[in-house]
Every structure is written in C-alpha cells, then in structure tokens.
C-alpha cells in the first residue's frame, strides 16, 4: 500500500488528508483496526522512533505515551514496586516487561496522557493490552501483536480503536521534506545515535557516574530528541517522571517539568495513597484529585 487516506488533517476542516510514499514504495505501516488521523500518525511515527531508540540504547523493552506531537511519558521495562503498581492502576495484571514499560510511560503524567497514542518497541502482549484496555487512548503502534492482545485492542472504542503495525526493519530516506505555507523545506534525517558514549565528556568536578545514572541520562536525551522545544525532561529509575514541552520560555518549561515530577513523587505519599474515594468515581477524577 503506497497511500493511506486519513480521517482529516491537523483539524477536522482540513480535508482531504492522506499519507503516501513519494518514491512509490509501500508504506511501512499496516492499519489493523480503526482509521488514524493526521496527528495520530505524527504521534505514531515519532513515538515509535523514540521507543526503538530507547530499546536499542538500554537493551530493554520501551514504551511511550504520545500526545499532540510530544511524549507525555516514556519508559523502559523495569519491574514495578508495589507502590508504583498502585499509583499506575495495574489492578492485579500479571505484568510482563513490556507491560511494565507501558505502565510507567502512562503513569508518569496521567492528565497529559489522557487520549494518548501509544508506541511500543516490541510485541504488544496480552498483559500490555489489558492495561491499555482500561485507559482513554486514541491508538497504538507496535511492530507486532499477540493474537489475544489484538483481540482486546480491537474491542476498544466500540471497535474503532486505531491499531497500527509497523515494519521493524524500515529505514527512512536520508533526506526528509516538509511544506509550510506552500514552501518546501528539506533537511537530512536525524540519525544521531544516542547512547552512553555521548556521556564520555563529564564536565562537572565529580566524574563518578553509575550505570543507572548513565541509563537515565541516555533516556532523557532520547526523550528530548522527540519533544517539541523548548523541552526539559526529568528521569528516574528508567522512566521520565516530568516532561516540559513546547514552551517559549525555558524557565517556564523547567517549572512545568518540575511540577510534574513533584506530582509524581507526591502521588506516592502514604497520605495520598490512603485517600478514600466514593464508590463509582472515575479514574481520571481520582488522578486530578
């Protein structure tokens, strides 16, 4: 398939809308369910690049929760503590490494992740699909899906949930183009590889850096590569806990990311964990509280 018709462009009034390969090659994606929109695919393609790089840099499965062309959260598949399981609402799901990655990515900033587009570095398994099933989300992109996971995801949004499979071996062209106001911009694709070798020049007086420190820094750099500037990212234990994106002022961006990181910490307070809610209150309302 060389062309895909979309629901609409960046806004509902921008029709018709499509994506296609200028060189006549097949698109690197297959839509398994639903019909994506313009921004859905921007989130999908940027999100998949992010998680693919995270997984290659760390050797762990990776997930991201993308919202309006910037990540709301991103993480690798490290096991969850009992407290994290509680604040991420895993609700007794037998967590796989991929499910842990998604729970972390979604749980860091649940308000921003509401209605997200998900990207996974590897196969979406049943455990990950069970977590996604309970969340308000627009769609998902992954290189493969287990049979049970696909069955669960296809049932979301009354059967309209967007499920996209991407060719894991796809490599983009070296030159990329974009039109703005009828003018075509062209530049080289950003193939810059981010890994621990980027941290060889330590400019602080303290030159000691643990392997975990290096992993967190690499994760932050990869997340920022796919975050709209100005951007700031706080990372702990293999996951972004606060991302500030697209602010005109770096000061405001830092405050935004820091506030999100503060909220992530505060949600783990025994007083917050012990809050009693009336029966039937929605998960989003608990998050906001």
What does this structure look like?
The chain has 289 residues and is an alpha+beta fold. The chain has one domain (3-288): Cytidine Deaminase, domain 2. 35% of the residues lie in helices and 22% in strands. The protein has 10 helices and 12 strands. The chain has helices at 38-58, 82-87, 97-107, 110-113, 126-133, 147-154, 211-225, 250-266, 270-273, 283-288; strands at residues 3-5, 18-20, 29-33, 62-67, 70-76, 116-120, 137-142, 162-166, 175-180, 183-188, 231-236, 239-245. The protein has a 6-stranded mixed beta sheet with strand order 3-8-7-6-4-5. The chain has a two-stranded antiparallel sheet with strand order 1-2. The mean pLDDT is 94.
Q: Any chance you could write out the topology, listing elements then pairs?
A:
Elements: E1 3-5, E2 18-20, E3 29-33, H1 38-58, E4 62-67, E5 70-76, H2 82-87, H3 97-107, H4 110-113, E6 116-120, H5 126-133, E7 137-142, H6 147-154, E8 162-166, E9 175-180, E10 183-188, H7 211-225, E11 231-236, E12 239-245, H8 250-266, H9 270-273, H10 283-288
């Amino acid at each position: 398939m060389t062309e895909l018709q979309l629901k609409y462009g960046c806004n509902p009034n921008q029709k018709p809308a499509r994506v296609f390969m200028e060189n006549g090659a097949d698109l690197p994606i297959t839509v398994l369910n639903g019909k994506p929109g313009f921004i859905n695919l921007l989130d999908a393609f940027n999100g998949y690049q992010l998680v693919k790089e995270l997984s290659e840099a760390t050797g762990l499965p990776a997930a991201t929760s993308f919202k309006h062309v910037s990540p709301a959260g991103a993480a690798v598949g490290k096991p969850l503590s009992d407290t994290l399981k509680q604040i991420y609402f895993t609700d007794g799901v037998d967590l796989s490494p991929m499910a842990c990655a998604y729970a972390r990515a979604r749980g860091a900033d649940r308000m921003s992740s509401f209605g997200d587009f998900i990207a996974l570095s590897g196969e979406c398994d049943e455990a990950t699909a069970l977590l996604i099933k309970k969340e308000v989300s627009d769609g998902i992109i992954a290189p493969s899906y287990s049979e049970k996971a696909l069955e669960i995801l296809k049932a979301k949004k009354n059967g309209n949930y967007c499920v996209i499979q991407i060719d894991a071996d796809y490599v983009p062209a070296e030159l990329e183009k974009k039109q703005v106001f009828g003018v075509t911009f062209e530049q080289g694709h950003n193939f810059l590889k981010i890994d621990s070798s980027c941290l060889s020049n330590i400019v602080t007086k303290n030159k000691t850096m643990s392997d975990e420190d290096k992993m967190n820094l690499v994760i932050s750099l990869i997340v920022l590569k796919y975050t709209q500037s100005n951007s700031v990212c706080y990372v702990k234990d293999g996951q972004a806990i606060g991302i500030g994106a697209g602010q005109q002022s770096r000061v405001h961006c830092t405050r935004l990311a820091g506030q999100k990181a503060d909220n992530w910490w505060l949600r783990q307070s025994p007083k917050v964990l012990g809050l009693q809610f009336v029966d039937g209150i929605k998960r989003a309302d608990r998050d906001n509280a």
